[in-house]
Structures are given as structure tokens and as C-alpha cells.
From TrEMBL:
The protein's name in its UniProt record: Uncharacterized protein
InterPro entries for the chain: DUF6886
One Pfam match: DUF6886
Gene source species: Actinoalloteichus hoggarensis
């Protein structure tokens, strides 16, 4: 489930949105109001339930062989997405939809590499939302390793110190770091 050329996507569990209006997200780090979407490269980052914390890593041209072997693993391909065991039921059962938009009103957002596309004006989808389908199968078909762990933080700590590309989404929803929980 990726956008066609000239399109961007917005993923949602709500199949009844007819118009997207710029807003400031509750977790935003910026004051500007945007409509958020993603291009083809970032679409797999959103093949998850909205609230699902996930850590992702991928090989870059500058990734060392040692980091690739240590973090992606032998036979693991060039990309891995990691979720917690407690998220598996939601991952397997979520009804996720993709809204398609004309890419024209959107611009890249994020430094140094864009992580999203944003519009500052209201936009309407090109058609009705499309069911995304089986998220596990999407990952398999895209050659993306899906890893399930009790704790995301060990993986996250390793990947941010590596030469791999990485992204973390909804990490605030992850289980506390071991030793961080109030005992």
C-alpha cells in the first residue's frame, strides 16, 4: 500500500473522513497547523495501528557491515520494524485505511531527511479510503522484517548508536524502560 506517482497517503483507522483540515497535533514540536501525509518511501512506517509504538531501522549506503549484521541480522533484508509483544493483537486485527491525495499541495517535512509530507491548506481525498489489508502480509511482500520484542528500548539504544538509518514513532506509548517503572 503505497501512493502512486503524484500522490501521497494518509493512514487512519477512521474510514469516514471527507476533508482534512490543518491542525496542530497534541504531540507536535512545531506551532504550525498541517495536514500530514507520507510519500512512498515513508508509507511502511505507518503500516501499524496509530497508537502502536515502533522502532525502525534500515541499511544506508554508509551502513557498516558490522551494524548490518548485528542489528538487521543475517537473512534479514535491508529493513526491520520492531513492535512489542503487547501490540501484536492490535497489529493483526486493526482495520487500517489509506487516503490518497494529490501531492501538489504537500511539501516535504523533516530534517535532515523528510519524514512526512505536509499541507497548510485543507485537502480532500482523491476518492474513498482504501482498506490497507493484512499488515503482516504487507511487510512480507515489501521485504521488511517484522520483529517482536518484550522491550523496544534495547533495540532502540543499539540502532541510534549505529550507522543504520532509523525512526521511532509513538515511542512514548512503549512499555517503560526496564528499571524505569515505578516499583
Amino acid at each position: 500500500m503505497r501512493p502512486e506517482p503524484g500522490q501521497v497517503l494518509h493512514f487512519s483507522e477512521n474510514p469516514s473522513i471527507t476533508r482534512f483540515v490543518p491542525h496542530v497535533a497534541a504531540t507536535a514540536r512545531q506551532a504550525e497547523a498541517y495536514v500530514w501525509a507520507v510519500d512512498a518511501a515513508c508509507a511502511p512506517d505507518y503500516w501499524f495501528p496509530r497508537a502502536c509504538p515502533r522502532a525502525m531501522a534500515w541499511r544506508l549506503p554508509t551502513t557498516s557491515a558490522a551494524d548490518r549484521d548485528r542489528i538487521l541480522g543475517p537473512g534479514g533484508g535491508d529493513r526491520v520494524h520492531v513492535i512489542e509483544y503487547r501490540q501484536v493483537a492490535a497489529f493483526l486485527s486493526v482495520d487500517l485505511y489509506a487516503y490518497r491525495f494529490d501531492a501538489q499541495p504537500f511539501r516535504p517535512f523533516g530534517e535532515p531527511a523528510p519524514s512526512a509530507m505536509v499541507a497548510v491548506e485543507a485537502v480532500e481525498p482523491l476518492g474513498p479510503p482504501e482498506p490497507v489489508g493484512n499488515l503482516l502480509e504487507l511487510h512480507r511482500a515489501a521485504g521488511i522484517q517484522l520483529r517482536v520484542l518484550d522491550d523496544l528500548w534495547g533495540f532502540w539504544d543499539a540502532v541510534v548508536r549505529s550507522t543504520l538509518g532509523f525512526s521511532g514513532i509513538r515511542l512514548r506509548n512503549a512499555a517503560p524502560r526496564r528499571g524505569d517503572a515505578d516499583d
